[in-house]
């Protein structure tokens, strides 16, 4: 069979297309519209890529930190501090905790006496603490102060938190955020040398004691806090956070009993407990 093109047939076909209104040729090769449609359906079934993070004016970009590196840097910085003043400065200069770049105004380290018999460790600073630069100075702090005064502990305490920057929206600090601040908390304990710890709130008790129980289960019980390097150990009692007591006044009786139990052990250490 001859494959030669009949010129008259081609001219006739072109004339037919012209009469039908075809004025342009869009492609030199045929297009498989079914394959195109299938490709479009497959593209629609794929989830869209996540949006790129947008940097807001005046706000640093938040990235997932390397927790192990941050903890090592905190440990190295804390180890160089020989007094509470240098420790406060080291905390303020520390950039390893992501909370520092999430809207906090300043680092909030401590208040109280430097040779306290009792160290109180809360969860994290709130709005009042962030503004004033000291822990437990808002409504919850004023309640705590009244309780300490009534128990005869007002001038015998050193107060700090598990993290030193206010979490956004006053949320509970994450275990990762607490871990990056833990070396500074341990160094504070080593410098103050308290006889025991009072852990205010579930987040503090869980972080310091490395336990998963709820605060209502742990409160009023004695535990042993041990430092990461096993060089220090202290009796520790979890109790209800003063902010929780403001929301549920009926629980104040339990927290007061915890404080009386702790005070008795502090003042009469030889008695069996």
Automatic annotation (TrEMBL):
One of its GO terms (molecular function) is uracil DNA N-glycosylase activity. Belongs to the uracil-DNA glycosylase (UDG) superfamily. Type 4 (UDGa) family. Keywords: 4Fe-4S, DNA damage, DNA repair, Hydrolase, Iron, Iron-sulfur, Metal-binding. InterPro entries: UDG_Type-4/5, Ura-DNA_glyco_family4, Uracil-DNA_glycosylase-like, Uracil-DNA_glycosylase-like_sf. It comes from the Bacteria. Transmembrane segments: none annotated. This is Type-4 uracil-DNA glycosylase. The lineage of its organism: Bacteria, Pseudomonadati, Pseudomonadota, Alphaproteobacteria, Caulobacterales. Its EC number is 3.2.2.27. It catalyses: Hydrolyzes single-stranded DNA or mismatched double-stranded DNA and polynucleotides, releasing free uracil. GO terms for biological process: DNA repair. Residues 109-260 form the Uracil-DNA glycosylase-like domain. Coiled coil: none annotated. It comes from Caulobacter vibrioides (Caulobacter crescentus).
